[in-house]
Amino acid sequence: MNLESPKVTVDQSAEYLFNALSDVKNYEKLMPENIAKFEVLGDDIFNFGLKGMPEIKLRLKEGNPHTKVNLAAASDKLPFTLTANLESVSANATAVQLHFEGEFNPMMAMMIKGPISKFIETLAQNMNKL
């Protein structure tokens, strides 16, 4: 299952956004209002839970400086990646688009497609809070 957020433009440089997204503590600012839990577990891993959804651990993976930040599920139960693609528009503006990629059985994919789509859309819309 592959999902994409709408592309948003943030009034920050690509370098600033890359550094902000490479710090797991900053993801709390991006979370939707219905967040039930957010906990930093280490320099590269955090745990979050939304009301009515199971908790998810995300680990920061390798990225490409100033163009891409990769996160991956820390559990094999729900294997997926979340990638932030950064495209410099000008010295102080960056276009950001989130890509979600996961392998799920058809029943699971049908159940989570709506909530995950809304979730990554909210993360993208909240990028200006960084």
UniProtKB/TrEMBL annotation:
The molecule here is called: Orotate phosphoribosyltransferase
Matching entries from SUPFAM superfamilies are given as: Bet v1-like
Lineage here is: Bacteria, Pseudomonadati, Bacteroidota, Flavobacteriia, Flavobacteriales
- Native source organism of the sequence: Flavobacterium cheonhonense
Q: Which branch of life, at top level?
A: Bacteria
The UniProt entry, under InterPro entries, shows: START-like_dom_sf
